[in-house]
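Cross-posting from the modeling subforum.

Setting up a comparison between two proteins and wanted a second pair of eyes on the formatting. Protein 1 (sequence, then structure tokens):
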Amino acid sequence: MKRYIIFLLLLCFSLQALYAKKKVDRETFAWRYEVEDIGKTGKQGTAVFKVWTYAKKKDAALMQASKNAVHAVVFKGYGIQKPLASDGTVYEKHRAFFNDFFKTGGDYQQFVSLVNNGALEAGDVIKLKKEYKVGVKVSVRKDELRKYLEKSGVIEAMNSMF
């Protein structure tokens, strides 16, 4: 009987963790964020900026920040830089690819890192009515990301335009 109760408790905790992860993914795919140019430059081929993410919990916003940063480079652009995907239908045409790419633990992670290990500065966490707005400095390896998306057939190669 004791083993049965322990098993049920472990099952409940596992299901709760899985639900929380899926909820964060659902919030991520709403793509609610802003990009701020912070005037910093990284190594050649990288983009450094601050991404402001909206979420109900601060921890969720921190987890989403990396996804939002890569999403911004691919679809929105940042600062004066245009997005890698200049065709507005790329996401719809390759929805399955991007759902897999941006899932928790997906390939997007290999192209982004948090500046200063994600340490937040004063003013980087803003409490709104029912959610938080969290600003995180990120570095995205945009040149590597472009090559990956070209190789995957998601965007056209730069040299194919000439």
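Protein 2 (same layout):
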Amino acid sequence: MSRILKSLVLASLMAFALSVQAAELKVGYVQVDKILQEAPQTAESGKKLEREFNPRSQELDRMAKQIKELEAALDKDGLTVSEAERRNKERDIQNIKIEFQRKQRELREDINLRKNEELGSLQDRINKAVQSVSEAEGYDLVVYSGVAYASKKIDITDKVLKLLGKK
């Protein structure tokens, strides 16, 4: 079975090579990872997320500080308070810690969700830019990262970045 599959793949590649010779195929290559690192929209997106989640992050910082202060106060006053009062304070601290962990987990989940939304939006913009460059310059085929080798002469990454506003 695998010999038949190999033969079919080889025949397809040979047919593709023959058609490429006959049709003068114009091929381009795009480094998506480079675009994601250098596109101005990436930095904008990061700043936007930071502004969006900064208040909640600051609230978590305040809660962490409050927990440390309460634990320090309990350690300091631990010998002078009654056992019942000590247990109440320990329970209060534990409840605050549980609330802190819940808010921390929710913040992480919300950040991840928003990052994925922003990444999806950025990918749409990148795809549109690649399509625009490809159509404007008459490319028949443009491939993304994951290619074993692509020469510099078919790399259109900088053109896409220019269209996105980088250069």
